[in-house]
Amino acid sequence: MTLLAPILGGLIYGVERVLRARMQRRQGPPLLQPFYDMFKLMEKRTLIIHAMHVLLGVLHFLILWLTVGAIFFGWNLLYVIFLHLFALIVLVMAGYSVRSVYSHLGANRELLAMVAYEPVLILVAVGFFLQSGSFEISKIMQGEGYLMQMPLLFMALLMIIPIKVKKSPFDVVEAHQEIVGGVEVEYSGLFYEFIYMARFLEYIFIYSFVFLFGGSSVWLGLVLVVAAFFLVNLVDNATARVRTADMIKIVYVGAITLCVINLLWIVL
Amino acid sequence: MAALTFILIPLIAASVILFVQNILYQQLLSGLVLIVLSFFAFLLFTSSESLIFALPHLVDIAVIFADIILLFYFIHQGRVYNDNKVLGLGILQLILYGWIEMLLPSSSTSSIVIDELSKMMFVIINTVGGIIIFYAVKYISYEKMDGFRKRLFLAYLFIFLSIMNALVMVNSILLFFFLFEMTTLASYLLIGFRKDELSQKNALRALWMNQIGGMVILLGAVVTITMFDTVAFDQLLSSSGGYLLFAVALLSMAAFVKGAAMPFDGWLLGAMVAPTPVSAMLHSATMVKIAPYMILKFAPVLAGTLLGGIVSVYGALVFVAASYFALSKEIFKEILGYSTIALLGLMVSLAAIGTQASQKIVIVLILFHAFSKALLFLTTGVLEKEHHMKSIESMKGLVQRAPKSVAFLIFGFMTLVLPPFGLFMGKLFALQAVSGNMMRSPWQIIVLLGVIIGSVLLSLLYFKVVSALLAKESDIKSTERESLPAGFALPLILLSAMIVSASVWLFKTQSGLPLYYLLIPVALLLLIPWFYRKIEGFDRAKEYHCGEKETFDAALFYFDTTALVKRRIYWFFGLLFVAVALVGVIS
Lengths: 268, 587
Known about the structure:
Largest interface: A-B, 63 and 62 residues
Oligomer: heterodimer
Largest sheet of chain A: none
Strand content of chain B: under 5%
Low-confidence stretches of chain A: none
Structural class of chain B: mainly alpha
Radius of gyration of chain A: 18 Å
Number of helices of chain A: 12
Helix content of chain A: over 70%
Distance between the termini of chain B: 41 Å
Strand order of the largest sheet of chain B: 1-2
Distance between the termini of chain A: 40 Å
Low-confidence stretches of chain B: none
Order of helices and strands of chain A: HHEHHHHHHHHHH
Order of helices and strands of chain B: HHEHHEHHHHHHHHHHHHHHHHHHEH
Largest sheet of chain B: 2 strands, antiparallel
Number of strands of chain B: 3
Number of strands of chain A: 1
Structural class of chain A: mainly alpha
């Protein structure tokens, strides 16, 4: 399962592109387009800036893969979050390691996005802990009724999904029109492929948090994931990009307040 | 016996090194002291007995004389440099001290208590402190001053080590006060060591701020003597009722001063003018570690009280505020300084919660923070002496010129944040412990938020700094080779090895952690230099500049707040500081 994670993520990405196209009344690409893209990238001539840059990019993908592996193994949710932080830090270092304006802007925005979503992820994990008595994913999966007890935490999680999957209104990190893809800009060919696949893994990472809200019921989890997926894409189509500073303000004032109210409600 | 080794060996080394002129012999001497002290510290750490013995009455009398001389010295300094704060606080302290000596129960004897906490502190102080002194030999040889002052500098550092060793084993509040003031003196002399105007100004500031710490200890001593008729920590902490919490509140306030918590952060930031080994010494092995040490000592009393609550919240807020302030700084050492203040806040906050689990976490944090900060400061010193740079603005693209130093810096930052290193483990345990407590005491959600947001801000800070270092040109230009002198390289390698081995040791003591899995990312990252030469088959390109011909160096981002907001934050923390005492009175 872990080994197949990039393929699963690729499929989710394919579905998303189809869904978005249908929402905009377009035909859209075929479902397997992400994989066709990958084959195309492999045939391209690869240009690199320097070795450290591309190696850090590959490393970002590998560590993200380990993170997703830790989710499938049912380990401690906090390890998952910190491994993900490690992967992100490696990407940020890659972005900063070249002398490119766009890459630096992108890396800086990656860090600021981290400042926004990381607290919410940890607070959601604490919510699971308070409900199930453990941070272990395997234990959390045995409990149920999370949605009833943690509705505000769920809303907070929904608020930060667009940051991680780079969707409007929180897609400043990538912002193709402004900073030509940010960190991605200096990658090409074979090495861009790793960055491209890393994005698939991000999908699995963030949606598995949504899935956890289903608890022992796999069906409820799946329904929640599909609903969240639909909602995020709907919002993506309906909103415009906000600025980085505003994104942080919105998340801190909105999402973190929701989390705190919900946690206090659980413990009191 | 053990107690004497830790105090006497550094003192002997201090007097010997004054007469050793050759650098090589100085290095040999400091290396020898490092080995001997670390050996004894580990020996003591692995033995399970805890030592308690009384001191002869002669020691008490000697300390009284020394104390009076010390306070007169402070007053003298206040007069010489025309500093009213130093002068006034010195006189107040002298009056209070005289009063206390008259109040003192005649039967009181001072004693030495070496418990688990002291043993751990010995390990940290002597290994890290020893390494720093070894490094300092090489560092100070670069300075432009006469040979005797250089040797005097090394002697001061040894004396500092000795004072710290004594401080973590005394059981009498008055002896503790004396040693506390001695660390103040040592930092005063070391900060002002360069003898220029700025150094002197900052040294005086460090002096008066720390004198406030001395004042509150004396006030705490007055309360303890009048209410409980003792000066011993263990008797105070095992008593109950009355004004126990008031005495502990006053003593805890001294911890905030020593830990440079806002509003006292000025002195630690000012300490940056001193030679770098001093900063390393203050930040990692000695001085500021008194703060979490004191709160850990009081933890059994603080646990579950309102006072413990406010101390804990204060610490958590310092963690967030200091991390935030660091984001606007440009001088590398100031950035490290604020990150120290932040992490001390975290330690104090967790210590004041007072459960067994949280106390263990604090010890882990103290240990790993000492290693990582020492590594970072010593590397900063290398950059200063070998590459003549202090500001992160001048460090842009440094990896091209100094790949080895940059590797040590990045490693140091990683050990402060990422798995599987000790500080990450500490924060992880902290999150688990605080979440576990929340059912019983919901107010700890403030601490939880503090831990989370502070950690996030620190990650932002560290990797923002790394950004400046890494910006490297395309491989079209080759990377230079950097040669590190052995006197610099050896301490850095030793510290890195200690971080790794201590992290592995920590993992072994925790069952059920996927150590090997968490090691994979680090292992992969370490393999990068090795793979570096293997990426040959691809063509090199220049960066994309959107068709512009501008040359781009590196972007550094600063996040600052307005002066008004800053002033309000300081007022808030000042009020919080006073509130600690008030809460002590009412509870």
